Amino acid sequence: MALRAHDGPTPSTKSTTIGGRVEFTAKVENSGQADESVFLSVEELKEGALGKPVAFAFSFDPPAVGLRAKSRSRIGFSWTAALPPEKPAFTFRGKLVLRRTTDGALIATAPLDLYVSEA
User: Fold this and answer.
1) How far apart are CA 15 and CA 63, in angstroms?
2) Domains of the chain and CATH, by start
3) pTM of whole model > 0.85?
């Protein structure tokens, strides 16, 4: 595989309030001969200690990051904190997943444990 993560994805904080920006970074190597791109997603999202699956869409900025051929770069994504409907606070638990854009191939995973509150 031409893409490999050396570090991350890692969130910049473990807690925030609504509207706060959370940065997610990873150090990724592209050892291939062609440029590649990757995207970040959240999978297996569960509600705190209850472990119930949660349907919530994370929208990262930018949607994907390009990596030049034969390079190693620290890449970043950001998310503006939000809460599921009718929740004054919420702990997001799941997996941060970094994948290749073209075919969805897995590059790296890391645990997500992020608390968001109204104030």
Assistant:
1) 22
2) 3-117 (2.60.40.10)
3) yes
